[in-house]
Queue: 2 jobs
Job 1
Amino acid sequence: MMTGKDYKASLDDGRETYFEGEQIANVAEHPLLGQTVESAAKGYDRFYDPTPGAVGAFMKVPDSAAALREQVELHETVDLLTHVTYASIMTLLTAADRIEADLPENAARIRAYVDQVQKADLRITQCITDSKGDRSKRPSQQDDPDHYVRVVERRDGGVVIRGAKLHISAASMGHELMTIPTKSMKPGDEDYAIACMVPVNAPGVKIINTTYAPRHEDTRDFPISGQHHTPEGFVIFDDVFVPSERVFLDGQVELAGLFAHSLGLWERLGGLSGMVNSFDALVGFAQLISEANGLERVAHIREKISEMLIHATLVRSSLEAAIENCQITSDGAAFPDELYTNAGKYHGAANWSLMVRHLHDIGGGAILTAPGIADLENEHVGHLARKYMSTSQAVDGQYRTRLFHAIRDFTADAYGGWNAVTQIQAGGGLYAQRIVSRLHYDFERAKRAALELARMPEYIGKV
Ligand SMILES: Cc1cc2nc3c(=O)[nH]c(=O)nc-3n(C[C@H](O)[C@H](O)[C@H](O)COP(=O)(O)OP(=O)(O)OC[C@H]3O[C@@H](n4cnc5c(N)ncnc54)[C@H](O)[C@@H]3O)c2cc1C
């Protein structure tokens, strides 16, 4: 396994990665993106085990509901790169299980790859979302044929791919790009039905980074995003050669969607478990700021917080149900329940803006305008700022100001804006979650219930 130091050194591998118009010489040493590398390096040190052949505890495949719960809880405490590596491994194993019957050789290739990557202690990021061009057209019908990643050449020993995958979390910080189709494909789309693993430093891979990281020198006013931030990568495959042993799907259009669905399950489980904590934090902020404002007993404030805590509880219940109702595959791996995962993630994503609306309504304008920590420390105005930010003898001005900073950072500034869009889009938009929920919902049970209630039992099983 690698230590944090080994990991940082491993990123100096000739990768071509950019930020704000400049090529980055060494991502580990970049003043802003290097901070994300530092968080990931701490993850390496945390899970380091010198025993030969050891596999990081965060990569272990769960084999029961209890083990799945342990992994979910563990992953709430790790950095995003560590988390997406686990989600990628679980996606690959889920896909291997699902293609086994049609492509046993490819399933074996996937499992061998997973074994190798676990032992080499590499980090994987998930490249699924294509640039997509005109959304109403299929990949092979686009004006520009490169809007979905495709095979442009088949050679002895491998394929050459071209295209771009967008919004890829932590792409520049990992070692391997898990590159899979973004959706189901139809006959005619064969060149787009490509799933493969690409090293970040493969010739032709170019990554443009964006980040919500605060750009202020004094990050004390950004208590959340100033501590941890992860850039997204705009990953371009400019004719990249991929050797055959790294190709898991090539041309089988009928199996393309299966990779996207496998990733969706693990991405949405991660999204759902993240929301469980975030929803509690939103309730906590609403309660704390209402207390600091002296309004916690006022009826309309209590009602809003009650509505918030009901959503927080429903999101938590969905996660519980997804874990408890997990399915065990033929390989003995525990996969969360699709319906509870998707319905729970949908419920949380759809209600994020409502939670934030209530919090902003309860909190007041100082969410945006509370003075900075340095202002509170200023010898001329600091004591006055603290005096007027205080609301009573029991509520210290600095305490209340810091609460406002956290609320702004989490919900109303660069990271807050990132959160608002990400809750909805990451892991596929709301529509994708509705489709998968629909696929797994028991309509027969619903129809039976309706027919029984209507005293029409003779139609049960016939309509
Ligand atoms: C912060 C962040 C991190 C992310 N991380 C990753 C990552 O690590 N890896 C990764 O692969 N992706 C990642 N994503 C991408 C995410 O999965 C996509 O943003 C999401 O799937 C939506 O795709 P899109 O952005 O292309 O939007 P669009 O597909 O353009 O969707 C916009 C809207 O149009 C609708 N729509 C699109 N096409 C159709 C159609 N044919 N018919 C009907 N309606 C349609 C959608 O339902 C949606 O409502 C991330 C996104 C964000 C914001």
Job 2
Amino acid sequence: MSARDVEKDFYAALGVPKDATAADIKSAYRKLARDLHPDTNPGGEERFKEVSEAYDVLSDSTRRKEYDEARSLFGAGGGGLRGSAGSYAGGGVPGFDLGDLFGRAGSAQGGFGDVLGGLFGNARGGGQRAPRRGADVDAAVTLSFLDALRGVTVPLRLTTTGPCTVCGGSGAAPGTAPQTCSTCAGAGVTSRSQGGFAFSEPCKPCRGSGRIVGTPCAGCRGEGRAAVVKMLNVRIPAGVADGQKVRLAGRGGEGERGGPAGDLMVTVHVTPHAFLGRRDQHLTVTVPITFAEAALGAQVSVPTPDGPVTLKVPAGTTTGRTFRVRGRGVPGKGGDLLVTVQVAVPQKLSSEARKALEAFAAASNEDPRAHLGVV
Ligand SMILES: [Zn+2]
Ligand SMILES: [Zn+2]
């Protein structure tokens, strides 16, 4: 637990009173987690994290007790932590100098935030035994233009850390078992008194784990965790753009000792399409039309990801003009299909077509350069 944790009101985050039972906390969390889950509630990630963090602490009776004690010791909430710590140190409680005291727990130079962080980091204690959230993991996928539009489930191979498969996470070589630490009797912490306060420190011989590994596992060198390869199927939502990052809560590294998993952050690369393009929420396409279609008007079939649409090109349409087909943009984003027409000039003429064109030229008295005059 860090000083930052102490500043947060975890009870408010879950909307429960300070004396809520473990069952109350669990049911409040379940309801919030359901309502706020990023898969169903995009944009709610911040709040979801807040709630998860609060639940991590409050659902663990040991960590909840530490948190409650820290909050009551340093004044609850907001800037109260630094404020009251400062007033202790400066206010001159006789014979009690928080600066000195905490200086021993962390770096004296670090300011109260750091020093308290060090202190609670120790008190957590057990450090090594408390649940810890898994690591956030980055990954990248390359999708076709259409898959990115429609959303797709892609297989991902992730290398992350997780419980060692050789020893099952105990850190002890197969066939051996970790022994309870005799110094702390398995508690992971030892107590000492200072200035009338009792402080817990992580036990040194077992490094706070409460257990001593006699013969370390070769697979993880006794750490209990090792690199693991995880195969995942991840759902990339419809409408992702090139370069966009998609956060998948809880699909990252596995937590330790029952802690929640970290998040998976997937950077999406999108390969270009042969003729469809994208501008924000709009899809774009360039459609060639003949000179006759442009001059006379025509119904033109335009391909879209959801099947062709018919575009009415009015008589006298100039090349480069863009038409908007409403509601046929990127799915779910409320965009349009922007169709730009381009007059195609025939590269080869049959003799019949040539005659017809010559007849047209003779019959037409329009001079498209009339406005240019002389420079
Ligand atoms: Zn191992
Ligand atoms: Zn110990």
